[in-house]
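Researcher: Next entry in the queue.
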Amino acid sequence: MDENNEENQDFIYVDGRKLYLHEDTKEIVATITFPDYPHIKEKIPLKINGKINGFWVDENNQQLTQTKNVFYGEKVKIKLITINVSDGREIEVEIKAKQEDKVIYLKEDKNTLKFKIKVKNGEAISEPFYLNPEWYNEEIEKYNYINHQTKIDLDKALTFVFEAKFTDGKRIYKLPREDNDKLKPVTYRRNYEELIGLFNTDNSGNKDKEQNYENKFIDSNSEIKTIVDEFIEKVTNQDTTISKIKSLVEEKAKSLWDSAVKQVQSGNLDDRPLYWARNKMQTWLKRNPLFKDQIDFDKSLVKKGTELDNIITLFEENSRNYTGIDFSKAGNKKRVLITGFDPFQLGFKFYGESGIQTFNPSGIIALALNNSKELLKNNIYIQTCIFPVRYEDFDNQIVEKVVKKHINNQLSLLMTTSLNGGNPRFDIEKYATEYRGGFHDNMCVGDYNNPKYDKSRFLANESSKLTETTLPKKKIFGASDNIEVNGQNIYFDTEKSETTGSGSNYLSNEVMFRATKVRGALDIPVGHFHLGNLKTKDPKTGETKSDILKSKKIENIVIEIIKRYYYEDKFINYFIYLFPIWNAIATTK
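Model: Structure for this entry, 589 residues:
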């Protein structure tokens, strides 16, 4: 600084004297002049207290704001700006997580949360700090039934702050309290179907990250729990890549289906571990920040045509067995394809405890009969899959894609199955309608004359076009329209109207319509079997509830219906084989 150009210099007054300040490389000094003796000048070193300020930055050292531009699963750093702090000085830094001003304990290495960084050239920058997605507090998510979005209360969201200080002699210098040391990371919020699983098993209506129905059903199968835990650990790994995630999805989604089949065929007839595991795994997949530009975070929707959309499709195909259906080893056996559905009517808000614990016998049957050894002994080779209870998947023609792939592959029989609501009746449906009634699905999409459901999200279809079953009525029912199997009446339902098929107008009807439409005029038995909701009366409460223990009875009924078709063909073939022999004997006589 030019000492002769005094008007452009900074100065302070000390005891009436003007002190001009300038910086050299090591210290700030004051130049003292005396008005009566202008030729006398004296330089005096000034002791200026050190200062620090700081803020969060991304990995490129760009400053971050509190919300929206930083995600769980990303790495952030702390940048400190220092004044009059010498190079090499160590500054102590501690990171804390707070919720509503209460410090929250994080399961993390202490060295990650409390460390020292050295000053260099007036600044100090920490090593990258990983915002573990598992720190995200899902409990604050709440579904808004007006705009059909999952919201969070930002005041209850986890806030990360840091403290910084250094000691100079006896004095301790700390970071001033400012907003720029606060960080509220964001992430994918569960959609309606995924969010239901977080309800506490105490049935209080509150959500709990640990003690919830999703975990309850997953934990009931140790093999599936291991699959879920390993998947979440790897998909949230800070060093993972999209390529690794694709391989992980393909492996674990297929293992999920295989484990569910193994569980059911070992005697534990329950489709819920598979259902809730799929929901939880896909939730954590969507929370990887590699996909942050491929999600509509306000609507909790994956953008169509993105890489994440393709990976979710891969997950669905493998965990529902769409791509696992394989008749290549069937040989000359009868090739039978059976489809089931996910549990539905799950919403705690509408159905309470009984809703969220619901199961679907059709899904259980699909798991029980896939590659069935019992039917294999009877020369029947069965493959199965499970469809979601979501209109969007049907609009994307998932039924047609599965059916078209196999219907011309010498398929002997295609039977779609579903739960007959709360009705204990078993029906083989004669008619299916294109008309879509619109009872809400598992994404809370539908128009059911109720303001809770958003009509704009529901693609209506008011066509009265009908298709008919080609399941062999005569082989199954003989000359009657009803038979008794294992103590249950099975009906051939012929009802229809302008807006309903024999199985009404929900997705159970729609799966039959779409399957029979693909079949067209092909001479292949294709139709729908509506499975009865078998219930048991609770001796303590007197309440009648769906009984999952009766799933075995339902399985045996389905097997018997399939065998009826098979046995008649077997008898005819046996008769054709013996007729020439009998005829030869008769001619000889």
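Model: The chain is about 30% helix and 25% strand.
Researcher: Noted, moving on.
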